[in-house]
Amino acid sequence: MAAKALSFDVGDYVVYPKHGVGRVIELQRQEIAGMQLELYVLRFEKERMTLRVPTNKAESVGMRKLSSDKTLREALDTLTGKPRVKRTMWSRRAQEYEAKINSGDLVSIAEVVRDLFRADDQPEQSYSERQIFEAATSRLARELAAMEQVDEPTAQEKILEILRKAAAIHNKDKIPA
């Protein structure tokens, strides 16, 4: 176990796979069950939640720094792709979408957003589709906002704009000439 633990500083934005983007607000030392533990204290503003993660477990739970610019570009490029909707039962697709969102992987989250997006001229989403779409969009927007230092609504609008433009291009392909 010689691997160097990930190190985050107070004030850093981090991504916790199950909860999205949070901020390290302090490093704590606590005695739990007779053992001294170092903890990252993470604050997730949107959920009004505070989470304590042992520093030695940060890597194994998938906690990471914000994505690189390259990964962000790849995720935004993914949004412009043609939606891929499998013809499997919704419950199975929903499980796959939830797993992608909870993976914390930006490109996987972008795939969910792309696949569940509905343009104004397309049939409306079911309630559960809309819930998953909103969760994925929010997760993607929060990381985009933290990276570009803008607020979440601005980041969300940027994502929706990319999706609308892509939908217009893909829908043009369907119209017979």
TrEMBL record:
<protein>
    <submittedName>
        <fullName>CarD family transcriptional regulator</fullName>
    </submittedName>
</protein>
<dbReference type="Pfam" id="PF21095">
    <property type="entry name" value="CarD_C"/>
</dbReference>
<dbReference type="Pfam" id="PF02559">
    <property type="entry name" value="CarD_TRCF_RID"/>
</dbReference>
<dbReference type="InterPro" id="IPR042215">
    <property type="entry name" value="CarD-like_C"/>
</dbReference>
<dbReference type="InterPro" id="IPR052531">
    <property type="entry name" value="CarD-like_regulator"/>
</dbReference>
<dbReference type="InterPro" id="IPR048792">
    <property type="entry name" value="CarD_C"/>
</dbReference>
<dbReference type="InterPro" id="IPR036101">
    <property type="entry name" value="CarD-like/TRCF_RID_sf"/>
</dbReference>
<feature type="domain" description="CarD-like/TRCF RNAP-interacting">
    <location>
        <begin position="7"/>
        <end position="117"/>
    </location>
</feature>
<dbReference type="InterPro" id="IPR003711">
    <property type="entry name" value="CarD-like/TRCF_RID"/>
</dbReference>
